[in-house]
Amino acid sequence: MRITITQTEKMEGTIQVPGDKSISHRSIMLGALAQGVTRIEGFLMAEDCLSTVRCFRTLGVPITMEGKSVRVEGRGLYGLQEPEDVLDVGNSGTTIRLMMGILAGQPFTSFLTGDPSIRRRPMGRVAKPLREMGANIVGRQNGNLAPLAVQGGNLKPISYKTPVASAQIKSSILLAGLYAPGWTEVIEPEQSRNHSELMLKAFGAEIETDGPAVRVKGGAQLKGQQVQVPGDISSAAFFMVAGLIVPQGKIVIENVGLNPTRDGILEVLQAMGGKIRLFDTRVVAGELIGNIEIQSSELRGVSIGGAIIPRLIDEIPVLAVAAAFAEGVTEIHDAAELKVKESNRLYAISEGLTRLGAQIEELPDGLRIIGGKPLKGNVCQSYHDHRIAMALAVAGLRAEGETHIEDGEAVNISFPEFTQLISQLQKV
Ligand SMILES: O=C(O)C1=C[C@@H](OP(=O)(O)O)[C@@H](O)[C@H](O)C1
Ligand SMILES: C=C(OP(=O)(O)O)C(=O)O
């Protein structure tokens, strides 16, 4: 499917974005491992989270859905069944890496695979600590590439210093830690998103956080919960940038998750001169949420790197779009992780924005963008990557004429309502 975007003068209105992807995945996983029923409201009904649902059904967990409500009948820590078939995670890195941690604790063998993108992404970063804990993991390149076999059971706790700030690595080890006697510890170079810690605690696990270190105590009995999933700030980011760059933009996005380990995009867009106002902020089920008002703004370039990168890791493609419309130079460093996402995002966004006429250069660990050049519509590739498809669509709102994005169905991975919400806000 091709997405076509027409240059837009005015975007106005109030929207809600779908549920947070990270929290939706984790609510299924923790619900499955808990005793009793977990009820999830505002679940993200998108391909990645539905892949998690499919995998847990294959492990014998009854999961039913009605609208955006999901009911998970927990099986307890030791109640999963040996899967009769290969577990297919589709396009979802979060699903495969977090499940590897859970499966490492099971007294049976599981096979995991996914789409061509997943089969290219590095899994050794998770296989290494899980092997240290006692799991046996087999796959191509010594267990770095799916398809993977995970033979679990009899884990021992470890203290692991991860070389990369990654919530998927951290969460995988913490989930395996539920099955190891004593305390399992993960120490990160920079703090990544903390949803696993918050949710494990809410489900009844013993969790300690101590600066860059997080510890979980094995053997806890998890208990089913009510989960209210906030709107995904990573999805909201596309509409923040859209509202800032169109000549007449005034957009309100309601009920967005504002967890401080995820809100780097707000900080950076504000530092670029973006008129962004938060209101009605409140805490719901341990997560800060609020409404965001965005108005068209004259943006200026910024330089970012270091600890803020994990706080906006998925927003970098759309941040590059904002930078293309900002006065001056923007540099993004310490973002080499983007090369191992659904696509090589440093390459994909540079290639796409260059086709539209932007001045953007790939750096070894980031991007350099010289903003202010007028863009012109063209045909672009999504590289089967949802974030690239949506970022280029946003750029198309301010590119002369029409912009086409090939393989636009990638948006269904995290945000099936994306194009409909764009049309709803376009006023001229
Ligand atoms: O844990 C999570 O839910 C996620 C962690 C991030 O990945 P990394 O842990 O690989 O940085 C992020 O890019 C992904 O979209 C979701
Ligand atoms: C990187 C992403 O997801 P995952 O790693 O779960 O595939 C993303 O959604 O941008």
Automatic annotation (TrEMBL):
It comes from the Bacteria. InterPro entries: Enolpyruvate_Tfrase_dom (IPR001986), Enolpyruvate_Tfrase_sf (IPR036968), EPSP_synthase (IPR006264), EPSP_synthase_CS (IPR023193), RNA3'P_cycl/enolpyr_Trfase_a/b (IPR013792). Pfam families: EPSP_synthase. It catalyses: 3-phosphoshikimate + phosphoenolpyruvate = 5-O-(1-carboxyvinyl)-3-phosphoshikimate + phosphate. One of its GO terms (cellular component) is cytoplasm. One of its GO terms (molecular function) is 3-phosphoshikimate 1-carboxyvinyltransferase activity. The active site is at residue 314. 3-phosphoshikimate binds at residues 21-22, 26, 166, 168, 314, 341. Catalyzes the transfer of the enolpyruvyl moiety of phosphoenolpyruvate (PEP) to the 5-hydroxyl of shikimate-3-phosphate (S3P) to produce enolpyruvyl shikimate-3-phosphate and inorganic phosphate. HAMAP family: EPSP_synth. Monomer. This is 3-phosphoshikimate 1-carboxyvinyltransferase. It comes from Thermanaerosceptrum fracticalcis. The gene is aroA.
